[in-house]
Design a protein that fits this description.
The chain is α/β, with parallel strands linked by helices. It has 13 helices and 22 strands. Helix 1 packs parallel to helix 8 and helix 3 packs parallel to helix 6. The structure holds flavin-adenine dinucleotide.
Length: 475
Amino acid sequence: MVVGDIATGTDVLVIGAGPGGYVAAIRAAQQGLDTTLVERDAYGGTCLNYGCIPSKALITGSDLAHEAGHAEEMGIHADPVVDMSQLRDWKDGVVDQLTGGVEKLCKANGVNLVEGTARFKDENAVRIAHGGEGQGSETIEFEHCIIATGSRVIQIPGFEFEDEHVWSSRDALAADSIPDRLVVVGGGYIGMELSTTFAKLGSDVTVVEMLDDILPGYESDVARVVRQRAEDLGIDMHFGEGASSWREEDDGIIVTTELEGGDENEYRADKVLVAVGREPVADTMELENAGIETNERGFIEVDDFRRTEAENIYAVGDVVADTPMLAHVASKEGIVAAEHIASEPVAFDSQAVPAAVFTDPEIGTVGMTEEEAEEAGFTPVVGQMPFRASGRALTTGHADGFVRIVADEESGFVLGAQIVGPEASELVAEVALAIEMGATLEDIASTIHTHPTLAEAVMEAAENALGQAIHTLNR
Ligand SMILES: Cc1cc2nc3c(=O)[nH]c(=O)nc-3n(C[C@H](O)[C@H](O)[C@H](O)COP(=O)(O)OP(=O)(O)OC[C@H]3O[C@@H](n4cnc5c(N)ncnc54)[C@H](O)[C@@H]3O)c2cc1C
């Protein structure tokens, strides 16, 4: 201990106030545990400040502008002008409202809030360095700790985010003007969400992706619907190319890519957005002092209760190995960790983890694909409903895509769904609930769904799997 430094104590110390950490802290406090939450930057973490929320706010703005300017078929003629700095202010207002709400909720639940950066002294204490000169530091001793330090963007050599021409997703979301030409490196979900956003705001967008398709990890027929729409929006996509360097020219920059055989391509741009993935923030906490090692990729390994190899120290969210880097996963893990510390009978069950991509159209997936169901030993039965057969989809002017439901043929238990189309991020919740509750195809098919809604397509897909669909031909 530093001279003059008095250590304070807490039952539960949570490091990081993202959706993993603040949710864990609130739940721990609700369980009657004295809880302290330490954050070095902003309440709400990546999700609220630099990720989910600002990206969805910009997507809403870009959709509105694009739709208004492309509704001639409906007899609507408009030529919207986007004031990017005003759109940014509106987005920032949404973020401020939510981050302020997180801080208030923590306080209202009795969570002690501490600003600073935590590093482990040993398995029962951290040292907090407060930000800013002369702010000093303090030691906090804990019974239990929950690490929720999240993740950061991966940089690629030669593309330093400090440079004004190179954007991380965070920079792109803070933009106050729309680049005329944007090269996006990486066709994963963040790259494609932002490509679509900027294309709709008026940028000429080029995507370069090392693999042979966008959205790795999604089935090809799902990715195809998004790719087709991206092409229609004018997004120029190049596969099998990795960005290798960039240089400044008189009228902007040139991004050079390398192809497999060694050939090179060049793309002119005003900005280059690098969106090649995220890596865990586990290397800045001196974890070794607490007896915790990370795996070869830098993630922290945990058990079903989110306990690390140190019995009293838990980890949740993006920093954890083997779970998807998603905000709702972080929050669920936070609840499991807090409740386990409070001796509640809980465990993390990853059977029905939904995931959404907010491209145009959206993707919503949960549970198993047909292939995964086969691998798991089921005999899957599959039902599908195209949105072009949905009355509601046609009335919104967005009828690309489909709902697919996968179930076990013998028992009828719903195993998964892949939805690509309008409001897929919302629709997938019905199937997640079905899986969680052990519902069958029959349960979904016999539930009366409101007409005309997109949710009817979920019912119709279940009927299709049963050979009872009315509005599509049964398989
Ligand atoms: C552009 C973008 C869009 C996204 N869109 C979605 C989406 O639509 N849906 C979705 O589910 N997910 C989305 N994500 C992912 C989502 O943001 C993360 O999965 C989520 O934020 C992870 O939560 P977390 O609590 O683990 O970590 P984070 O939200 O990263 O929070 C970690 C916090 O810990 C703090 N911290 C780190 N180290 C220390 C330390 N030593 N001491 C004190 N504090 C520390 C950090 O400052 C940070 O505030 C998106 C991400 C990005 C970048």
